[in-house]
Specification:
4 helices; about 140 residues; globular; mainly alpha; single chain
């Protein structure tokens, strides 16, 4: 195996590694990339404001937290797509796979809340409904 930054992979065996699910990795990378893009655009728009109310401050903090997490997650998913087996993921990597999109979702909801609390509530309720419907459909797909 060629020497690289990730030379630890030469030592892995079946007991401390997992088979890469390429389909899931591609889907998760797409989700994280889109969410990262929304976050960057939002932060750029917030830069133009003179002051931030509480919902916009919450949104800014959410994106300041989620953007590095999403970037790291996209990097890891890209590595996964280059290999058939990967070392077992540490707990932090597993948590970040969900934390980045969830924190970004809170940031987006806070923006809608900024406009009107009803818009924020509708966004949250309809998004959760869409997640449930999409999850039910995805469970039926082989």
């Amino acid at each position: 195996m060629e020497a690289s930054l990730f030379c630890f992979m030469a030592r892995m065996d079946e007991h401390n590694s997992y088979a890469v699910d390429r389909k899931s990795a591609r889907q998760e990378r797409l989700l994280n990339s889109g969410t990262l893009g929304v976050g960057v655009v939002t932060v750029i728009q917030l830069l133009q404001l003179d002051s931030l109310d509480v919902p916009l401050w919450v949104s800014l903090v959410c994106f300041a937290t989620s953007l590095p997490i999403l970037s790291m997650s996209i990097f890891i998913l890209s590595m996964e797509l280059e290999h058939t087996r990967m070392p077992t993921k540490p707990l932090g990597v597993l948590v970040s796979g969900w934390a980045g999109p969830i924190i970004s979702f809170i940031g987006i909801a806070a923006i809608f809340w900024h406009f009107h609390y009803l818009a924020g509530v509708l966004f949250i309720v309809i998004s959760l409904g869409a997640l449930i419907v999409g999850g039910m459909y995805a469970a039926r797909v082989p």
